[in-house]
């Protein structure tokens, strides 16, 4: 410890000497104004040069004394010590942090300073004459530096720290780097020199003292044992010497996984059971191998190792749960084998070659599958589905026998039936006990050569257990149809034909299909033995040729020849038929082309030329147009008659919506239009009992009354015409819903409160018994004179009729 103290003292002495050497310097400034000290003119006159004299200023941070801390002195070389010079300072902290003695120039610090907050202060000094306040020295700038002490501990500013390292990593594997910072002055002493060390976790990790790199200290880090470590790292300044400050941080180190653990089945044997009727693909169960690793290191695949298991079962891997799913690959049979043993192996997908020496990364287990017995339907044996029967087999003949057995241990008896939806005509029957299929109707291969039926087999005491088998029954052919000519042959021969000329090649058809193929023989029928006109040649390929045997034919003598031909098949048994060839004698040109025959089939073509078709279509079109025109004219004539009978009264309504010219204007409107439909008889002037124009010179009373609305009812008018017309129109409107309502009914119930006269309505004046007096109309002035004359005349006529 003495050696340590001695070293510290030596270091401090060296620092003080260096400070003295750096601070002992003189600074001279020359004023810029005339007459000031330092002026060149004054210097030329022999005056002495003046200037500031001081050392560099330092102040120690974190001073805790009670008295102001002495910083230093500023001094002018012109100061003679008589107090005539006044010293002042200005700038950062002047007057607050730093105070100056005006007489001596001593500067003191009055506050506690912190170099980490501010490292130096810049101030300016002045020297003035105390009496005149005149500058004796020019203003000069100086700096007070804050001297550092070790008062800041190292800090980890980038925490919290989280690192990772793979398990089983070798010693010295770099994990991560930590770094601490010290706010002290790195250029002064060792206050900012930091070294690192491990406080906790040193048994597993180390740290580089200078760089702060954390490394593994052991090679057996095992994630499965411990997957996380909390390591405390300490940083100490003063290069770790005594008295240095320190700070610490906690580093979380996560151990990542590697595939160092093989899969292991928790059990060495698993047992499952499944019914024997389970369909292929049914899942039997699941097994899972455990793996202590995590992530993709736990991914594994499963497989069946034994031959029996590979044949009967299939193993797949569930990618989500990493389980082995065991499914049925072939149908199971309790009666054949009740228990199956399957060896299932699990192995990792991704194997790290670095850890192969740790062992095989796979494991096996045994799975026992018990097959459960169920009541199964009968099974058909053998499964052949083709039967054959001759078409001439008698009803009740046995076609074949189907056999079905109950696969269960009980071996129940089996009953058989035919699914009638596949044999609706009941062509076949089956013996319910023996399974013998027999014919139920006469067979005909030419009608149906194949039959597809479904046979049902069921337990005798449990008909719900049903099996189905599809059978194909082929009807074998027998020769039961004679051959026939392929078509009703008709041939033509020219009148000038020569002997040996080919007339027709004939062929035959046979509905039978013998296994060895058809072979037909052609001869002339016995009734044609006396024929000397034509000959028949069998070509030996199931066809025959007809040739002429004479020179020339005469249509006048005979125009048609009928040649009977006998056709025989090869059997067995051999069947035959006779067909007739019709030969017509025709006239031919020099090239042998037929020109005319007695049959229209050889004269006129059955098809019409395009021109004839167009002409026929034009005629049909003209006829259609004429018919439509006639119908249109008839309909138009009928509608014209109807419109004359049922003329719409709306067309004869004349609306007057302006005021007339008074009684002098009798020609403004032709009122005869209102009477054109009603055939009014001419009303005489005297019939009305005097009109409004009586006594007027130059007026014709009859024409004047004709031009005005006549309200006098004529005795010979028959209003039944109007009544019938209106009733007919109402009926038509009621029946036809598409006609808009032409009639309208309006009610005028309010005349106004300022009308000086009563209503002018003449609705009630048509009744013969009206007692209304219209004499007051005469008092309304000359505009109503004619109206008063009309109504007065009507009133007088009624009185005369009553008398």
TrEMBL record:
It is found in: Cell membrane. Residues 1-26 form the signal peptide. GO terms for biological process: adherens junction organization; calcium-dependent cell-cell adhesion via plasma membrane cell adhesion molecules; cell migration; cell morphogenesis; cell-cell adhesion mediated by cadherin; cell-cell junction assembly; homophilic cell adhesion via plasma membrane adhesion molecules. Its main location: membrane. GO terms for molecular function: beta-catenin binding; cadherin binding; calcium ion binding. Keywords: Calcium, Cell adhesion, Cell membrane, Cleavage on pair of basic residues, Glycoprotein, Membrane, Metal-binding, Repeat, Signal, Transmembrane, Transmembrane helix. It is a single-pass type I membrane protein. InterPro entries: Cadherin, Cadherin-like_dom, Cadherin-like_sf, Cadherin_CS, Cadherin_Y-type_LIR, Catenin-bd_sf. Residues 76-156, 157-265, 266-380, 381-485, 485-602 form the Cadherin domain. The chain crosses the membrane at residues 612-633. GO terms for cellular component: adherens junction; catenin complex. Pfam families: CADH_Y-type_LIR, Cadherin. This is Cadherin-22.
């Amino acid at each position: 410890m003495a050696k340590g103290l001695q070293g510290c003292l030596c270091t401090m002495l060296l620092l003080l000497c260096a400070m003295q050497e750096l601070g002992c310097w003189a600074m001279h400034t020359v004023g810029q104004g005339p007459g000031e000290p330092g002026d060149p003119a004054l210097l030329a006159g022999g005056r002495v040069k003046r200037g500031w004299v001081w050392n560099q200023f330092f102040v120690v941070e974190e001073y805790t004394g009670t008295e102001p801390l002495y910083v230093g002195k500023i001094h002018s070389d012109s100061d003679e010590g008589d107090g005539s010079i006044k010293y002042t300072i200005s700038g950062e902290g002047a007057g607050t942090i730093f105070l100056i003695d005006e007489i001596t120039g001593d500067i003191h610090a009055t506050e506690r300073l912190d170099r980490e907050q501010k490292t130096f202060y810049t101030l300016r000094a002045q020297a003035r004459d105390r009496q005149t306040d005149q500058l004796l020295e020019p203003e000069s700038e100086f700096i007070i530096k804050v001297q550092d002490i070790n008062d800041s501990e190292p800090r980890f500013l980038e925490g919290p720290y989280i690192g990772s390292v793979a398990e089983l990593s070798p010693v010295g594997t770099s994990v991560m780097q930590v770094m601490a910072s010290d706010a002290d002055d790195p250029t002064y002493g060792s206050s900012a020199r930091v070294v690192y060390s491990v406080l906790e976790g040193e048994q597993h990790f180390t740290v580089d003292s200078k760089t702060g790199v954390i490394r593994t200290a052991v090679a057996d880090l095992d994630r499965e044992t411990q997957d996380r470590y909390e390591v405390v790292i300490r940083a100490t300044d003063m290069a770790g010497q005594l008295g240095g400050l320190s700070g610490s941080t906690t580093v979380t180190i996560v151990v990542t996984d590697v595939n160092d653990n093989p899969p292991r089945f928790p059990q060495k044997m698993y047992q499952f059971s499944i019914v024997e009727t389970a369909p292929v693909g049914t899942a039997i169960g699941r097994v899972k191998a455990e793996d202590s690793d995590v992530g993709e290191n736990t991914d594994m695949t499963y497989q069946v190792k034994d031959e029996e298991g590979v044949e009967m079962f299939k193993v797949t891997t569930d990618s989500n749960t990493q389980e082995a799913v065991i499914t049925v690959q072939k149908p199971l049979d309790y009666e054949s084998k009740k228990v199956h043993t399957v060896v299932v192996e699990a192995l990792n997908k991704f194997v790290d070659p670095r850890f192969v020496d740790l062992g095989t990364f796979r494991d096996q287990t045994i799975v026992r599958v018990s097959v459960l017995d169920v009541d199964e339907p009968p099974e058909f044996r053998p499964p052949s589905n083709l039967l054959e029967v001759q078409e001439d087999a008698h009803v009740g003949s046995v076609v074949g026998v189907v056999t079905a057995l109950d696969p269960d241990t009980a071996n129940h008896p089996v009953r058989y039936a035919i699914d009638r939806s596949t044999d609706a005509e009941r062509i076949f029957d089956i013996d319910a006990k023996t399974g013998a299929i027999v014919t139920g109707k006469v067979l005909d291969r030419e009608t149906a050569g194949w039959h597809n039926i479904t046979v049902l087999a069921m337990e005798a005491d449990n008909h719900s257990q049903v099996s189905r088998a599809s059978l194909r029954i082929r009807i074998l052919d027998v020769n039961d149809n004679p051959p026939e000519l392929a078509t009703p042959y008709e041939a033509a021969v020219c009148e000038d034909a020569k002997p040996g000329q080919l007339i027709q090649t004939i062929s035959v058809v046979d509905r039978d299909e013998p296994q060895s193929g058809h072979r037909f023989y052609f001869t002339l029928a016995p009734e044609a033995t006396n024929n000397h006109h034509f000959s028949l040649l069998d070509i030996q390929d199931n066809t025959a040729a007809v040739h002429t045997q004479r020179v020339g034919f005469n249509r006048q003598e005979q125009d048609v020849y009928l040649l009977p031909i006998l056709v025989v098949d090869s059997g067995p048994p051999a069947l035959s038929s006779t067909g007739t060839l019709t030969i017509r004698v025709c006239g031919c040109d020099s090239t042998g082309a037929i020109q005319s025959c007695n049959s229209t089939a050889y004269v006129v073509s059955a098809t019409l030329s395009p021109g004839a078709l167009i002409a026929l279509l034009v005629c049909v079109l003209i006829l259609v147009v004429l018919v439509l025109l006639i119908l249109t004219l008839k309909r138009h004539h009928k509608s014209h008659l109807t419109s004359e009978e049922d003329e719409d009264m709306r067309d004869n309504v004349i609306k007057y919506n302006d005021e007339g010219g008074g009684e002098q204007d009798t020609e403004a409107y032709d009122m005869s239009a209102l009477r054109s439909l009603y055939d009014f008889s001419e009303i005489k002037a005297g019939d009305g009992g005097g009109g409004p124009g009586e006594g007027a010179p130059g007026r014709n009373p009859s024409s004047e009354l004709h031009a005005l609305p006549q309200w006098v009812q004529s005795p010979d008018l028959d209003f039944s015409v109007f009544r019938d017309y209106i009733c007919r129109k109402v009926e038509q409107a009621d029946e036809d819903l598409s006609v808009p309502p032409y009639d309208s009914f309006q009610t005028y119930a309010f005349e106004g409160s300022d009308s000086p006269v009563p209503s002018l309505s003449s609705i009630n004046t048509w009744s013969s018994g009206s007692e209304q007096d219209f004499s007051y109309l005469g008092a309304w002035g000359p505009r109503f004179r004619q109206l008063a004359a009309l109504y007065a005349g009507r009133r007088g006529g009624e009185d005369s009729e009553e008398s």
